[in-house]
Amino acid sequence: MNGHIRRLATVMLTLVGATFALAPPQAHGFAEDICYTPGGAPPHSCAPLPPPCPLDDPNGALCGLEAFVRYGYTLRQPLGGRSLVHSDSTYIIARTVGFSERDAYWIAAYDEATDLGTFAPRDVDGEPVADAAALTTADISGLVRTHFATGGFLFHFLPTMRGPRDPEPDGLRPDVDDPAHEVMLTHVRTWAMAGPGSGAPLCTGGFTNRTAAGDYATGTECFDDPQPTPINGTYSVETPIAIPFTNVTGQQVISGGVLSSQFDSWVGPQSWNARIGIYIHALADRISHHACTDAGTVTAPSPERPEFRIDLNTPTCDQGPHAVRHEYETGVDFASLDPEDRTTAAALSTVYDELIEFARVRGTLDADSLVPENKSALLVDGLLPALQHRNPVERLNAVTDVGCRFGVPAFPGSPACQG
């Protein structure tokens, strides 16, 4: 009987997934968990893990189908929402390691905008905050998770360059200094670290001309050797059914006709904060999607095959397990998850470490953030327990309270700190 149910659910998921061939499913790395409710009602959880679904089996067919459909419904609600990982947690961490309150906000806002295209804060009733216009990001919709044609998808799914027989990387702890393998991750990091006016390129897929060291991530120009080259890939719906996608090497599309060489003028004074936020988002999503992208591969062009090839057509990329794993990221008991599924803890730890490095470069580093006990107090004793609250209002308030305890004013739209 269980085998029949699994087969039935798998067939249903495959049929549902096939309908996305022209409109691909969303790539929800730390997707919005707080959704605003029309009519001024309290916010609700965008896609909580259904109570019957276990915490130790992301491959259950029926849970996968329900999670997949639920995300497709809830993330299309008219008022949208936000991720307490990408927005509030990033803001609190950035402020704690030494960024000003304003800089920390913009880093977090562009972290969230990398999923949504633009971000403007709303209060708990779903209404724009009083100064929402001044706190709204520039449009960076070319980076959005569903935009395959612009290469935006690859800011959320970041496979490594390796052969099919090479060992899989440890995406829970990605090596941010490995341009030979972590091509997109190190490429975006290099661009963000360089800052405005540096001339560092931001390229589709992260592909630059090959460097003397042999990597395709850290060159001074986008790949054009000897001319722009196709980027062809596949992304699993339900293995072996996959979505094909095609790009071409060159500058990354930021919005419409705006290319990455125009990024600083397009974004304006918050350009460096925006770069950091975009990188922090890509980093967190590399960890969030590691079960998929660790198994995926990128291969470089060759005389026999003059294209970059991205293969994400693997069972760990199937949309059912993918959706369930995102429901593991907030509102559940993290200790009950298998170690490889504890992506929230892994992401916050790595984001903390990387924001320290950016604060160091910017000259704002708070030396207290280097003390391991202080990091543990903020994350292990603070944000992680707060993010486990199943009730969305309790979760939002608990995250805000953590920031307040560390002297960080509430994220715009959240209830103000008391006392």
Helix amount: 25-40%
Q: pLDDT average, as an integer?
A: 91
**Radius of gyration computed on alpha carbons:** 20 Å
If strands are numbered along the chain, what order do they take across the biggest sheet?
5-4-9-8
Topology, element by element:
Blueprint: H1 2-18, E1 34-35, E2 44-45, H2 61-74, E3 81-82, H3 84-97, H4 101-116, H5 183-194, E4 230-238, E5 241-248, E6 253-255, E7 258-259, H6 263-267, H7 271-288, H8 290-293, E8 297-299, E9 308-312, H9 319-327, H10 343-362, H11 372-387, H12 392-405
Parallel strand pairs: 4-9
Antiparallel strand pairs: 1-2, 1-3, 4-5, 6-7, 8-9
Helix pairs in contact: 1-2, 2-9, 3-4, 3-10, 3-12, 4-7, 5-7, 7-10, 10-11, 11-12
